[in-house]
Amino acid sequence: MIIVSACLAGCECRYDGKSNEVPEIKKLVLENKAIALCPEELGGLSTPRIPCEIVKVNNEVKVIGRDKNDYTAQFTKGAEIFTNVAKALNCKTVILKANSPSCGYGKIYDGSFTGKYRKGNGFTAEKLFDLNISILNETNFNDFFKEESELQSD
Predict the structure, then answer these.
(1) Burial 90-126 (b: 16+ CB within 10 A, else e)
(2) CB 128: neighbour CB atoms within 10 A?
(3) β-strand 60-65 against 134-137: which pairing, if any?
(4) What's the Cα-to-Cα distance from 85 to each of 27, 92, 125, 144, rounded to whole Å?
(5) Which end of the chain is more exposed for a tag (fewer CB within 10 A), N or C?
(6) Residue 143 — pLDDT band, cuts 50, 70, 90?
(7) How far is CA 82 from the centre of its chain?
(8) Residues 35-63, buried b or exposed e (16+ Cβ, 10 A)?
(9) Tens digit of pLDDT for each residue in 70-108?
């Protein structure tokens, strides 16, 4: 089973109450080939919610909102629940929202709320990486499925 970020499947669960719908990803869910989860909602955050980014505070990684409040506990809880679902379903592949403080993999916002990026992983992506789950995003998932399809046709 594949798990996808709910916003990519068309669920209006982004911080601003909108979605990042990708029709091909939504189709995977509608065809029961994937399930959609939002780690931020799983962690107890509302939709809409304050935008958050990952920062280092006194050598500690935290998720801080634009309102300067600490949301680390909610992001940690959401990552744990998401990861537990992935383990229960024996998930091998996820498609996560790029750059997100939960789902970003390899590149996330830099914590300045200016739209700039830095190397790093969101809280959920980091836990999934530790489980050796293949992490894709909305920009590269088609390449993965194309390669998998080519392997099956050989």
Answers:
(1) ebebbbbbbbbbbbbbeebbbbeeeeeeeebbbbbbb
(2) 27
(3) unpaired
(4) 21, 12, 14, 22
(5) C
(6) confident
(7) 9
(8) bbbbbbbbbebebebeebbbbeeeeeebb
(9) 999 999 999 999 999 999 999 999 999 999 999 999 999
The CA–CA distances, whole Å, from 111 to 18, 19, 22, 30, 108 equal 21, 22, 26, 35, 9
Alpha helices in 14-122, H assignment, sequence order: 23-30, 39-42, 72-88
Give per-residue pLDDT as tens, 115-137.
Answer: 999 999 999 999 999 999 999 99
Which residues are 92's β-sheet partners?
none
Tokens found for residue 74:
């909610």
Give, as one character, the DSSP assignment of residue 70: B
What tokens appear for 15 in the block?
Answer: 């911080």
Instruction: State the first-to-last Cα distance of the chain, in angstroms, to the nearest integer.
Output: 23
> pLDDT tens digits for 19-51?
999 999 999 999 999 999 999 999 999 999 999
- Find residue 96's DSSP bridge partners: 137
For residue 116, give the 3-state DSSP assignment. coil
